[in-house]
Amino acid sequence: MISHRPHFEVTPRPLPARDLRARFAFRIQSKIKRPSAATVQHPKSRTQSAFTLLEILLSLALVAMLLVAMNTFVFSMGELWGKNTDVRLFEQHVRAVTRALERELRAATLPPAARANASPVAPQEIRPTGGATDTLLTFELPAGTRLITWPGPALPEVVCSLQARPQEGLVLLWHSRLETRFDADPPRETVLTPFVTALAYDYYDVALRRWTTEPALKKENNGQATAPQRLRLKFAHGKLTRETVVALGNTPQGLPNF
């Protein structure tokens, strides 16, 4: 005969808090890897891996030498670049003024400003503002020029004259034929460059086959001034002096007027 024992559920008794803390501490210590003796560094070895005072001083000395070398290089290049700045700028100014004057004089020798067998650039008596009448080299620009600034709307048929003044430089005297008081009022004035100290005029002698330079416009036996073949500009700025030549072309025979 089989006897059945009654089934009882056994409930585990909770451990005391002291045992729980002990087990928890044991598990944490088992997971932490303790460094071996090979990986543990001695305090002396740590001090040996840092920079010494001598090394720091040497590095600072090298950096200072490098900075001094770079500074010297930069200043030397600046001195080389700015050594002849005045000369370079002065020569650029001389070339710019000469080319501008050549362009305007070339425009005056072409139709409709020029006429066949005529001198488009010729001496003419001009009365400057506040001055006496003087014989100046004069030419006409039908389309005007960009070298001047009009007080109002720009006008064509501009009559221009060149004059060199000691304290002012190269002055362009100009006015338009379309102005109502063209014959009564003196021409306006524009300083092209303050560095021109004198104008000279080159004449070619066909008989002697040579060039002669005159400080003023050459006059014939009848007292009338003649047009030169070349215009000579003398520039001066401090100790710098330059001289350029501008050719004055004549209108060839048979060229039609447009």
Question: What do these coordinates show?
Answer:
The chain is an alpha+beta fold and 258 residues long. The chain has a domain at 88-247. The protein is 29% helix and 26% strand. It is built from four helices and nine strands. The strands form two sheets. A five-stranded antiparallel beta sheet has the order 1-2-3-4-5, covered by helices on one side. The longest helix is centred in the first third of the chain and has 30 residues, at 53-82. It is elongated. The mean pLDDT is 81.
Summarize the structure.
The chain has 258 residues and is α+β, with helices and mostly antiparallel strands. It has helices at 17-31, 43-48, 53-82, 85-108; strands at 122-126, 134-141, 158-165, 169-176, 188-193, 196-205, 210-214, 230-237, 240-247.
Share in β-strands? 25-35%
Our measurement of the CA-to-CA distance between the termini, rounded to an integer number of angstroms, reads 150 Å
What's the pLDDT, averaged over the residues? 81
Described by the principal axes of the CA atoms, the overall outline is elongated
Structural class category? alpha+beta
* Separate helix tally: 4
Low-pLDDT runs of 5+ residues are none
Order of helices and strands: HHHHEEEEEEEEE
Radius of gyration: 48 Å
Helix percentage: 25-40%
Total number of beta strands: 9
